[in-house]
Design goal:
Two copies of one chain form a homodimer. Helices cover 29% and strands 34% of the residues of chain A. By secondary structure, the first copy, chain A, is of the alpha+beta class. Chain A binds a DNA duplex through α3.
Chain lengths: 245, 245
DNA sequence: GGGTATTTGTTCGTATGTATT
DNA sequence: TAATACATACGAACAAATACC
């Protein structure tokens, strides 16, 4: 992994700072990538030809800067990039990522027209059994899956919403095309659970890691519900940040 | 499980409604408790002496009312009581439960004075290494653990906060006693993870079920940070509801 | 469930060079 | 120059957490 592990002794730069710089270089050169486990402290000490304490000091400095994650009994890991996903009155996937200067992608996995189950109907303010359009979409950032979203709309009001979404890759723009200039969140519920096989597959995460789930209702300017959404986030890669409070 | 499974035929009451009533009685009598798996549809059908479709109709009715959770390939489960925990600008544990007409309890598990780690210091707006008071508290509702909370305060500003909390059982009242008339949330971050041994023990939940974690900063009227808090919720028993949106 | 190997966490002690007083 | 404080570096031993069989 390390191309060159020679340190300069008596150079005026502390050995542990040289090791720190080494590790930073490894990350910049992608020899160390997020989630990767570092060699053990003992092994690093041997490679660098220093005492284990000296390696520990370098690692501690980088942990303090949030670049490493050290776990007793397990090892030291390069910190995964966690995405701060902002949740508030105006939650928009693409705007959210744009703010972080990340390009987001939306992929339509499936869509169907079906009869509204009770809970969904209540959220949308329609009668149970009325036809609804259900969209399943995978959201990615930098090629990594971020969330698996289910979006449900009244099929009467938005019969062509699935095609709009497929073409535009955005709920906001699909709704715009259907004449909804703006919408806001009326309700958000957050919980956590373990993913089923399909969710784990789409989110590319192990089944024994949790997912964060949000259920939300968006309403138009007049307060009429237009979308009921369920978003499943890979909890290891995404944190929700509430704004403004 | 079922004490009596005889149904009255040609009684004017549909068989599936009688079965539905049977199941409700079982829940009221605690023969069926939250999280418990029902016998399979076939087995129930045999016990009641009806066709499986008849049992399905009764289960579907109760699922629609949110009392059962039916999962294909797994079985039917009595829905766990989930607590809707409201999160917003003014999040207060006791007020939250009072709104649901539940009496909450707070138990001080531990408190200590220690040097502030970098992240904590940043949240509280003090220098790393400054002394802080750390409180570990278990929150319960109806005798069931709801959340395990860590609260960190500046030891300079609130030297006696741990004793106040121990006596009053509430962060809000402890802060009141220290002269903080009001406080609001400035920041909330939500994520999910798996519990460690201690967390699972306190929350009385298995280690393979996830926990919901919120990190928050509360500020006083002048905007000065006064508390950094971490709350760990048993995800199977608590959902977070954002208010107003 | 118990035992073992691995890995990090912690605490001793010792020594040396550098900057400050 | 001498005394002192501090950062750096090494060595050894044990504790605690975790994974694996």
């Amino acid at each position: 992994m390390h191309v060159d592990t020679t340190l300069e002794r008596a150079s005026g730069v502390a050995l542990w700072r040289q090791i720190e710089q080494h590790l930073v270089s490894d990350m910049e050169a992608k020899r160390l990538t997020p989630g990767m486990r570092l060699p053990s402290e003992s092994e690093l000490a041997e490679r660098f030809g220093v005492n284990r304490h000296t390696v520990r000091q370098a690692i501690a400095a980088l942990e303090d800067k949030g670049m490493f994650l050290v776990r007793q009994g397990l090892g030291t890991f390069v910190h995964e990039h966690v995405l701060d996903y902002s949740v508030g009155r105006r939650t928009r996937f693409n705007e959210n990522l744009a703010r972080l200067q990340i390009e987001g992608q939306s992929e339509l996995l499936a869509s169907a027209i079906e009869a509204a189950p009770t809970q969904t109907a209540r959220a949308l303010g329609i009668r149970a059994g009325q036809p609804v359009v259900r969209i399943l979409a995978l959201r990615s950032a930098n090629g990594r899956p971020v969330s698996l979203g289910t979006h449900v709309f009244s099929a009467k009001r938005f019969p062509g919403i699935a095609e709009r979404f497929a073409a535009l890759g955005s709920v906001t723009r699909a709704l715009e095309a259907e004449g909804v200039a703006d919408y806001v969140r009326k309700h958000t519920r957050i919980f956590a659970s373990m993913p089923d096989a399909e969710e784990a597959l789409h989110l590319r995460q192990p089944r024994n890691r949790p997912i964060l789930v949000t259920e939300s209702v968006n309403v138009d300017r007049t307060g009429v519900p237009i979308e009921f959404g369920i978003a499943r986030f890979a909890a290891d890669r995404v944190q929700l940040v509430l704004d403004p409070p």
